[in-house]
Amino acid sequence: MLLGNSIRFRWDPLSFLSACQGIDGPIVAIEDGLYLVSGPELIETILHNRDDIFLKTGSSEAGDMVSFPSSLMNSSGEDWSLKRRAMQPDFTLRRVASGLSSTRVITEAHLEQWQTGPRSGDIRKLLQELCLDVGCQFLLGTVLDEEGKEAFLVLSDAIILKTREPVRLPLHCFDRTSYRLTSAREAAKAVARAAIARAGQEHGKAGSNNWIGSFVNRTSVEDAEWLCDEFCAMVLSGIEPMSAGLTWTLHLLTSHPDVLQRVIAEVDALSSSEWAAGEGLAGLHPFPEARASLLEALRLFPPAWLTGRTVARDTMLGDFFLAAGSAVMISPWINHRSARFFDEPDRFRPDRWMDGTLQQRLPRYAFFPFGGGIRRCIGEHFSLTHMAFILVCILKRFILKPPSKTQVKAYPALVLRPLGVKLALMPRATAAY
Ligand code: HEM
């Protein structure tokens, strides 16, 4: 039975997770020492980690399994706590919303290129490049040159490939995917070092506004290697989940023309002059239909579909004994698609989010695309505001149509990558800018 679970989980994790929805019990053993937890109360115990038992997976074997061991994402204990406190002020809603005017300029430049490029293509790749520029603008106050962008896109692909392997060898094993990942990482780090040095010099100048510069000034960071790791990890955190979330949203919207029409009507309600004057830059609130579609896409296809913790010492989780060293996995995929929490759980129904009360009515860990507890995503406000804004910009500019035959697949790696979302882009006659 356990061997069966292990093989199914490693080879086809999404169908394994979907099958877990029918299982009566909040914990499923995947193999000896590896458990999948879906009960909302137990997820809360793990993520809030009040007794310091559930350690972020990766922290102990960081050097060998993850690309940027000293980044916030992969650090732990006091080291993590110092970094999180130092970085938090740069990710408040007010701070990230102030970057929307730059995101607008960048998005418009990209959409201009989409308009003159091929009329149909893999929208994920276009969005990945756009999100890379948006992320770098926020972090550095500028975008990378073509070579620098390529280095990060290659690294992102290498990470996705590595993290989809059913049995993952540590990076020092130098198997093909490890080799590809380590060399891509070194190339990206060289780009990062040069970019950080430039951003640091720029920061002294009047009007410069970038995370790296202000962060270094505010905290007097001296560990250049850490800053480099942090920058790389942040860029990758922006590229993959944001572009995946946006691609899923566009895929779902174009396959539900009635919903798409409602979002377009909302976008069009803002007149060209209001749009040109910068209305809508305040964040999500002027576009509730767009926001609801985004939340619904994050429900059905949570980009961060699996996360894990290592058990530091013997403990009970509910009625279940966990030995020290066991691993617990948590996947929003299970609860996000469970009929216990959502009516018609497999249907794309953004209307469920429209009155703004669903999130309060749900148990805490029924919907958690950004995780929870102390390690909750630091980029949540950034992602939601900037993704909604990019979505609005796209719908203002283009009519999007899926080809008649299309094979879309979810590729469950570090992020739930959408494969095969091809959309025809037709400039709207009423394009407002
Ligand atoms: C749709 C977009 C995003 C999604 C769905 C997402 C999801 C998540 C989730 C679920 C976690 C918690 C992982 C865990 O508990 O193990 C996380 C952590 C994190 N995310 Fe995001 N993320 C997104 C975008 C971003 C962006 C844009 C940034 C940075 C600019 C970012 C930076 C981070 C960092 C640094 C952490 C680690 C926080 C810590 O451990 O203290 N994320 N993210």
TrEMBL record:
Cofactor(s) essential for the protein: heme
Claim: Cell inner membrane is one of the keywords in the record: no
Top-rank taxon: Bacteria
Assigned keywords, A-Z: Heme, Iron, Metal-binding, Monooxygenase, Oxidoreductase
InterPro entries: Cyt_P450, Cyt_P450_CS, Cyt_P450_E_grp-IV, Cyt_P450_sf, Cytochrome_P450_monoxygenase
Family indicated by similarity: Belongs to the cytochrome P450 family.
Protein name per UniProt: Cytochrome P450
Taxonomic source organism: Rhizobium lemnae
